[in-house]
Amino acid sequence: MTHPVSPRVVLVGAMGAGKTTVAELLATSWGVAARDTDHDVEAAAGKPISEIFVDDGEQHFRALERAAVATALAEHDGVLALGGGAVLAEETRTLLADHAVVFLRVGLSDAVKRVGLGVGRPLLLGNVRSRIKTLLDERTAVYEEVATHVVDTDGRTPAEVAAEIEELL
Ligand code: S3P
């Protein structure tokens, strides 16, 4: 790692991959802090993501997200989970190039089961299954591009996923 401070690992992947839960498990196991860029964006905006989308639009959300990711990559030395769409920004992909990045892979069925009705996730409004299918189709290649490691999550508990990441790193 070329940075003085750097996350031990950055978790990327679609909604329902388990990024936030796995980040917390890994952080507990390693005795470090877990951080989630969705929470940083909500703190910066002073409101939940669903309200940012409605009040200010997705583009504004993405600008806040790019800034939150850049800050977290520069100052967080624990485990970092990115929002599912963060890797769509070229600026973010460039920053990720010198970090350990794990892509938590999830298939359509497991993702749908895990997000439930998609409450609080504005991109899933409407038909959750068809929205997730579109997002997986559009983004899987990007997750693979930024990842240094890929871990399958289908049919596995967050604890099993976290244990595999610990073996890998
Ligand atoms: C999004 C994923 C969400 C959140 C926002 C947009 C996306 O994060 O950042 O609703 O574009 O995939 P999670 O992947 O943590 O649910």
Automatic annotation (TrEMBL):
It holds the Pfam family SKI. GO terms for molecular function: ATP binding; magnesium ion binding; shikimate kinase activity. GO terms for biological process: amino acid biosynthetic process; aromatic amino acid family biosynthetic process; chorismate biosynthetic process. CDD domains: SK. This is Shikimate kinase. InterPro entries: P-loop_NTPase, Shikimate/glucono_kinase, Shikimate_kinase/TSH1, Shikimate_kinase_CS. Monomer. One of its GO terms (cellular component) is cytosol. Catalyzes the specific phosphorylation of the 3-hydroxyl group of shikimic acid using ATP as a cosubstrate. It catalyses: shikimate + ATP = 3-phosphoshikimate + ADP + H(+). Belongs to the shikimate kinase family. Gene3D superfamilies: P-loop containing nucleotide triphosphate hydrolases. Transmembrane segments: none annotated. Binds 1 Mg(2+) ion per subunit. Keywords: Amino-acid biosynthesis, Aromatic amino acid biosynthesis, ATP-binding, Cytoplasm, Kinase, Magnesium, Metal-binding, Nucleotide-binding, Transferase. Mg(2+) binds at T20. Its EC number is 2.7.1.71. It comes from the Bacteria. Pathway: Metabolic intermediate biosynthesis; chorismate biosynthesis; chorismate from D-erythrose 4-phosphate and phosphoenolpyruvate: step 5/7. Substrate binds at D38, R62, G84, R139. ATP binds at G16, A17, G18, K19, T20, T21, R121, R156. Its cofactor is Mg(2+). The gene is aroK. It is found in: Cytoplasm.
